[in-house]
Write a structure and sequence with these properties.
There is one protein chain. With 241 residues, the protein is of the alpha/beta class. Helices cover 31% and strands 32% of the residues. The strands form 4 sheets. A 5-stranded parallel sheet has the order 2-1-3-4-5, with helices on both faces.
Amino acid sequence: MYNIIICEDNHAYGECLLKMVEIIINEFPQRYNVCCVTIDPFKVLELVDAEQDWILLLDIELESSINGFGLAEKIRDLFPQVYIIFVTGHKDFVFDAFKIAAIDYLVKPIDLAELKSAFQRIEVSNTNISKRFRSEENNKKKINIKNGSIRYEIKLEELLFIEKVKNQCFFYTEKLVISSYMTLIQCIELLAKSENFVQCHKGFIVNQDKITSVDLKKNQIFLGDMYRCDIGKNFRYLFKI
């Protein structure tokens, strides 16, 4: 869960931001929590820690010995994973915000759509981080497949999909295709520790990281220009956006 802090020295505007944030996070009640609305940047420094995830909405001009940029720099040095959204009445500090790696720079008066867009950027960033983490973990994993007397070691990062044809399963990798006398259930059990693979048809298991496009009208998944897998009617819900 992400804890949200609003640091704004105008009480009325702070309350306005709070109302907009509450509308946005109402869609994701288990993902976000408003922790604090404050005028004091040092309060922010007291609250933010490495044990939790944070989103900071910061005004730049604060009635304090430290402004929003100074606060952001201190936070970034201590906790580089924190998401920062600047909310200011000035258009002149965009480059400084870029150097601090803010997720967004919003110029007052802002509207709900602008703030929602900033939160959507956070959602996209989280998805990419999660996907990259899964891929890194996936890259460390391998499976062993037997074809007759020959054993093959397949890196999961190279496995595109598995196709079941009669009493064999065909493992399509980036370099070759390996067949083995296995059931699809056995393949699913073999891949149980990886989150990247999903069954899309009674005869197919696909690596989600290798999907380049999905055509629900034709019930097909595309993996680059060479391969496509069918989507069974009982699996369509997995690929609806």
